[in-house]
Amino acid sequence: MKAQHHPSEPARLAALRAYDILDTPRESDFDDIVMLAARICGTPISVINLIDETRQWFKAETGLGVRETPLDTSICAHVILENDFVEIPDTLADARMADNPLCLADPGLRFYAGALLRSKGGYPIGTLCVLDNQPRVLNPLQRDALRILADQVMTQLDLRAVIANEAVLRSEIDHRVKNSLQVVGAFVSLERGASNNDEARASLERVARQINSVAALHEHLGMATNELIELGPYLDQVVSLINSTLPADVSVQGRFENVAVGSREASIVATIINELAANASKHSFKRSSGTIFLSGERVSEAGYWLVCSDDAQPGEVETVAPSGRIGLGLKILTASVRQLGGTMIATRDDKGYSTRLDFDLPVM
Predict the structure, then answer these.
(1) Which residues are within 8 A (CB) of 340 and not within 5 positions of it... i.e. 6 or more apart?
(2) What are 126's strand-pairing partners?
(3) 279 to each of 254, 319, 358, how far by Cα in Å?
(4) What's the CA angle centered on 226, arms 21 and 238, to 5 degrees?
(5) 361 or 222, which is more confident?
(6) What is the pLDDT of residues 133-171, one digit of tens each?
């Protein structure tokens, strides 16, 4: 006998599909549950069975060797119309199963026991069931174990649904933050282009670079699985962004050893290389073109060196701000290094101008 549709079939199917579990690969979390159910109940077959519109699909199974069968011969399609637990000691003695080819086969499915899998809204989406090729009866402990394991299946599904919803929400937040940063960046660029004041233009240029760095950091955080930033790839992207803002005759090259750091540390290091590149571009290449070289390497368990050098010609480097005061860039640079508890040493030789920064990046 073919089972009737559930009285709330459209809502039941919607609840099932909301879990986005159909046709997913096998997973040990669910395989372990059916293996345990079969051992506890002493049956050769156990299945996590989800009742779709025209088929029953098995998220996990032991003893069957298939992932789905037609709904027409489904025992579970009858069971989801019943209470939370159904036990059929002999399927051929049950009017619903007496003509079922799976039960009449040799060997056929002669015993069935299943605990319903209910969604948060109370809709039955399937069962955790055990089957045997001979009639039998479960004891109270086996029935309780089957119910508890069915609850564990739904705990897994509900947890995955929560995580998926959080991922969607995070994606939406990421999209909005990215758009906001783009709008702010565009506004800063317009203001910089409209300004006739060199200091104001330089300050707005710094703001624009920092916005770009924050946007890149946000992008890397979106890809991170443990809230840690891969510093090497992130700084490579920051260098690429810096190159897009520098004069055409000045370029930046970067080479950074990769370490996993927190977002705070990554943001500070990005600020440092932004300022190193900006200061080198401004003070080392007043009348010529050239290249700025940035490199970073782990020198101890926690220590990290960041070096900025360039190939400016002798006499090109302007080491003091025009009025003798400390410029904004150097203030930002010094404050950023101080936040990491580091030191900064600047040197000048026949190969050009060089700055080395030593600071700690804790092992994550």
Answers:
(1) 265, 268, 269, 359, 360, 361
(2) 50, 117
(3) 16, 10, 18
(4) 115
(5) 361
(6) 999 999 999 999 999 999 999 999 988 888 777 666 666
Q: Strand ranges (DSSP E) for the chain?
A: 45-51, 55-62, 68-70, 85-88, 111-118, 124-132, 229-230, 250-256, 260-261, 290-298, 303-310, 343-349, 352-360
Task: List Cα–Cα distances, 276 to 217, 283, 304, 356, in angstroms.
Answer: 18, 10, 16, 10
Please give the domain boundaries of the chain with CATH numbers for all domains. 9-161 (3.30.450.40), 225-360 (3.30.565.10)
- Tokens representing residue 25 in the block: 């690969």
| Per-residue pLDDT tens digits for 214-240 | 666 766 666 555 668 888 888 898 888
Is 228 strand, coil or helix?
coil
Average of per-residue pLDDT across 181-191 = 69
- Read off the pLDDT band of 321 (50, 70, 90): very low
Q: In this structure, which long-range contacts are made by residues 20-23, counting pairs with CB atoms below 8 Å and at least 24 apart in sequence?
A: 20/161, 20/164, 21/50, 21/59, 21/157, 21/160, 22/50, 22/52, 22/57, 23/57
Query: What predicted TM-score, i.e. pTM, was given to this entire model?
Result: 0.54
For residues 130 and 119, the answer to whether their CB atoms sit within 8 Å is no
- Distance of alpha carbon 305 from alpha carbon 293, whole angstroms: 14
Neighbours of 178 (CB within 10 A): 14
Tokens 């079969």 label which residue?
Answer: 38
What tokens appear for 39 in the block? 């051992």
The residue whose two tokens read 């609850």 is 151
DSSP result, 108-132: ---EEEEEEEE-TTS-EEEEEEEEE
Please report the sign of the dihedral spanned by the C-alpha atoms of residue 193, residue 197, residue 201, residue 204. negative
